[in-house]
Amino acid sequence: xxxxxxxxxxxxxxxxxxxxxxxxxxxxxxxxxxxxxxxxxxxxxxxxxxxxxxxxxxxxxxxxxxxxxxxxxxxxxxxxxxxxxxxxxxxxxxxxxxxxxxxxxxxxxxxxxxxxxxxxxxxxxxxxxxxxxxxxxxxxxxxxxxxxxxxxxxxxxxxxxxxxxxxxxxxxxxxxxxxxxxxxxxxxxxxxxxxxxxxxxxxxxxxxxxxxxxxxxxxxxxxxxxxxxxxxxxxxxxxxxxxxxxxxxxxxxxxxxxxxxxxxxxxxxxxxxxxxxxxxxxxxxxxxxxxxxxxxxxxxxxxxxxxxxxxxxxxxxx
Amino acid sequence: xxxxxxxxxxxxxxxxxxxxxxxxxxxxxxxxxxxxxxxxxxxxxxxxxxxxxxxxxxxxxxxxxxxxxxxxxxxxxxxxxxxxxxxxxxxxxxxxxxxxxxxxxxxxxxxxxxxxxxxxxxxxxxxxxxxxxxxxxxxxxxxxxxxxxxxxxxxxxxxxxxxxxxxxxxxxxxxxxxxxxxxxxxxxxxxxxxxxxxxxxxxxxxxxxxxxxxxxxxxxxxxxxxxxxxxxxxxxxxxxxxxxxxxxxxxxxxxxxxxxxxxxxxxxxxxxxxxxxxxxxxxxxxxxxxxxxxxxxxxxxxxxxxxxxxxxxxxxxxxxxxxxxxxxx
Lengths: 318, 329
What we know:
The complex is a heterodimer.
Chain A: H1 21-41, H2 44-47, H3 54-57, H4 67-85, E1 90-92, E2 102-107, H5 116-124, E3 137-142, E4 165-170, H6 179-183, E5 189-191, E6 197-199, H7 209-213, E7 219-221, E8 236-238, E9 250-252, H8 257-260, H9 267-271, E10 277-281, H10 288-295, E11 299-300, E12 312-315
Parallel strand pairs in A: 1-8, 2-12
Antiparallel strand pairs in A: 2-10, 3-4, 5-6, 7-9, 11-12
Chain B: H1 3-26, H2 56-61, E1 124-125, E2 133-134, H3 138-145, H4 147-154, H5 180-189, H6 193-200, H7 204-211, H8 220-235, H9 253-260, H10 265-279, H11 313-318
Antiparallel strand pairs in B: 1-2
């Protein structure tokens, strides 16, 4: 069998240049674009002025802190608040009390929808005023229905209550089975022994998973640096409660932890002109909330079907 | 055009576009930013915790002018006021009482003044069971007809309440001393049996602090600490109630009803606190539930409607209600 004739050997190619003119231009263009895009994306850093101090950066996880560590942290917070707002606050880290589980009851027959609770909460808990962060939303529902799809929280009549409607304030329900706690990737939010779900604002990374997980839209995100007028700052603060937050962290209702754990009623309860709000220790059979759960007829746990088992009960009355 | 050249042009165009965008971002190109109108601070009326009305008991406690409640300035003690009826047998309200709206209750049948007021002594109230109550005890009168509501009120489940859910931890806080100089003054002078009792509980250095106390001086903090320590020590002790000590002090209904139970433990602490609040009504903040008439007007039944506070954020931006709103309390 004849072999096919072999092609004559090619002359050796000249050595390729390290970088040709064309590829140099292309690479530089890509590099320039990349660098420019990087610079543009880092632009917000130019506006950043809230750099964490070394002490805050190295701070331990709340549950791992010794009392001495906590003392240092509280002093640091007091110092920071004094520097920013010009008055020395009283920051405490109140622990849950033994034999106490907080429950909130709200009488839907009594609520007149005046929204005083909303603003008492803002004032007590040092929420941002501009943009305004409100923990409580008051829903207006047509009589005879509990369909949340028909609810309106932008109502603005001349006076309340309006005929044909009832009002349903919604805030953090302090669930027994809280979905927000499950989704937090850094364990910055957890449920305490007295039933309050708290957030460590120094540990939160601002991913907003908890906001998405909450079926009650109870969690709020600080998109900007909170603006609190100095004259309206509440100096009675708690570490897990109403100390001023930073930009980029979550916050929510904590039953006024700085008041509740000192034995006092939450601010929203004290301001309610209709006496629709009741709060107390469900483990104490003589408390108001025990009396209500025992003797009132209708209770609604909002979105019961979600299986969150809220510690916030709605009831009707005569 | 070769493929390489096409790629080169595409890359160059994309690079130029990105560079232009980057430049625009960095230099804030594209005109001025849209500015959001500032959100006005909420009117402080909406933060007010005061009750809609003041009860007679409140007026007595704060030493207010009670001349409006002296019926016999106008009426004659010997002759009960005659009731004038219209053709429908409804009472014609005298022009002097034009603020009274007849119509207590929705059924309109409770329309006789003397269902509640005592005909022979107008300064008293009379429930159906024949008791005679002063205006300060009006809640018990309301309770004589509105039984289930009164039962809820006694349990703390009806009406407004403030202060402490935890009766065991109800010490006085600094902000609850409303008028420090008045407290110190009453203690120094031992002007009443309760003040004399509290004064005796102070140590000699503590008494010296209060004796040397000058309002708006650097001694304020020290004096406040002394007063707080003394009051909080006293509420943790056995019942401070003695009929002689509290003879001249009008006690609130919450205090008398708790007193009758001879409480122990947490409720005893709470009772002592209530007794001190009754003894210093204008000087210390009250931490008890309110009376019926603090919210309801027995002569004008409908519960007052009011202007709602501003709603959530988007409404305050778009709805044109950014200006300060006046509360109606």
